[in-house]
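Recap quiz, item 2
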Amino acid sequence: MSTENYNIGLLGHGTVGAAYAELIEQRAGNVADLTGRRPRIEAVLTRSRGDFAAILENCELVVELIGGVDPAREYVLAALAAGRPVVSANKLLLSQHGDELFAAAQRAGVQLRFEAAVAGVVPVIRVLEESLAGTHVDRVHGIVNGTTNFVLSEMERGLSYREALAEAQRKGFAEADPTDDVTGRDAAAKMAILARLAFGAAVRLDQVPYEGIEHLQSDDLEYAREFGLSLKLIGTAERIGDGISVRVHPAFLYPGHPLASVSGPFNAVTVESDAITEVTMSGPGAGGLQTASAVLGDTVGVMLGGAWRPRPATPCELLSDVKSSFYIHMEVADRPGVLASVTQVLGDSDVSIKSVVQRGMGESARLVMVTHPVAESQLRRAIESAADFEFLRHPPRTIRVIEEEFV
Amino acid sequence: MSTENYNIGLLGHGTVGAAYAELIEQRAGNVADLTGRRPRIEAVLTRSRGDFAAILENCELVVELIGGVDPAREYVLAALAAGRPVVSANKLLLSQHGDELFAAAQRAGVQLRFEAAVAGVVPVIRVLEESLAGTHVDRVHGIVNGTTNFVLSEMERGLSYREALAEAQRKGFAEADPTDDVTGRDAAAKMAILARLAFGAAVRLDQVPYEGIEHLQSDDLEYAREFGLSLKLIGTAERIGDGISVRVHPAFLYPGHPLASVSGPFNAVTVESDAITEVTMSGPGAGGLQTASAVLGDTVGVMLGGAWRPRPATPCELLSDVKSSFYIHMEVADRPGVLASVTQVLGDSDVSIKSVVQRGMGESARLVMVTHPVAESQLRRAIESAADFEFLRHPPRTIRVIEEEFV
């Protein structure tokens, strides 16, 4: 009995594209057992070769692994308009033009899948869109950038930021230009996508405030170690009242937090909801073969069919000034009255201190405080008021703290 | 515009059934947004009321939350034969009669979903069956029984087995008769189901050897603490050559293992494969609302349609004598020559020792050894040879050790 072929048009043939083409060849028989059709790469389009019109003509599925917005956007829209389902690994495209793409898929009545765009092989998209589709999600926390998680793990072992980044580059976990990773922009794009899926909210990358890891110091990691905390670059998407907040920033996690033990170049996402409490998924971040495996999973998903397709998202109030606990790090002259002055100024700004550690270092003292939850704007005002103290050796540093909720 | 109803027949109305009925009512609107149909419980069948023939007549989906094999099996087979998709949370049924049920679903061309049967709301079934459907899975490790994981976590905090079990019962994490949980039988049923999905292998509960946690001692937990190891009840399903091994037993995990940090009444599953490295999913184990949420996820999956249905599994060689590293705990008379005698006997049986810790306790000494990987049968023979030593205070205890593979 011969099995009918299922023709795939592949756009892009870089690391992931090549790994995907190889995986399709290796696993074609198994996919045929599952779906009844044998997948094959019918045509490839790269900058230098291939014919997009012929791909639309001859292929049942378009797999977009070009990356970047242009020309990927035009190709994906054209494929959807022609009634071809699309699998993409393109986080920039999805996070900047999600509305347009989802509407196009909806109009055409075809699937648009993009598991590999967020957490590589960690199936967070499928779980949010399908397993948890009926669930009222309250919050998503994610470590969605493997490069920064690797750098922070190395800093935890005692390396400086520069040394850790160099190590990440040496091992292939960071690119020559790591800007998008270390500034948090890459994670922000992924959180925009997750927020859309978790809340049906039309969130774009340019609406997600992000803060990176470049300014973190070994001191901060030392504090984390001493108090059993982990310091991670955390993406958050949460409901607060009728609005939502989506943001990326470094955060201290208490030891029992499901993301606290995620080390090295890994990704992990925790989904919280009253009904499910929490579900956490983790695995290696990007890597050619891992990403290609996620694309293969989506390919099988499309081949199996089903009515699933992204819903166009609804507008939603995005909150920018949310409450957190903060860690405040100050290096001050070691003399009487300093702690009193600092706590006075913070108290005047209604910033309430939960714990203080002061430690002498010769001429100076290190003052580390953790606040009770306070709006970010209010904390910033308090820090500004404190910035004028002549006894400060450096401007104060602040890092958010994710507190244990269920104790 | 009125939305068409989607009628569900609910079999069983215990804790999970009641929670599911409530969840369907709460989330009907959201499910309608996703699927275009509004789910409602059209009829309920319990031991004392309801009419199964009417359910088959009037419902598009049958949800089986009775539990146990009879009469659940007859109902599920009848529903499938009548062309009704089935969602079930019944691990006993699936692990004992999987072949028959999967064949019936295949014959009828309808979905049979059972996410809640394995790890509650942790979507391991969907991820194995769909996201990783194209992947060649090498191994699945799972903490698939929340009761025993809670008991072990409490023992880690210093409680005895009896105290920890009483605490689990007090908190509602263990039933009055905890036999199925503490003997490992519940976990074995779940591993039979996972092995079937991961390897397409026809594995039944009665083919899965299991060992529970009843014989574990505080000493063992103390050893774990001292060496930074975790002691968990681990289910394993793995390919070894052309065969597979499926088993449940306590195991020490090295600190970086993805399951090592899973504490309390949680479930977690790690799937390993060359292509994906590893993916881990975790979340709360059973609980009425959590289980009902998993059943809701499956309900949405059925409503969305798609060609997915379980494949009938193929027979497969089940290996019973696999290699592991072992921890061996002996209490011996504290006098010269004892260690030499023990290592001599182990060496004669080709059991190679990796590390030894001997510690005096007055008259006696505690001898803890970890072996290099050795076939279980060989280790048993070696331990039997050692059992005759007159200097032994108790029979030796052994626990498997899961070693770090990638260092």
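Residues 15-35 of chain B form the longest helix (21 residues).
Chain B has three domains: 5-114, 124-284, 323-402.
End of item.
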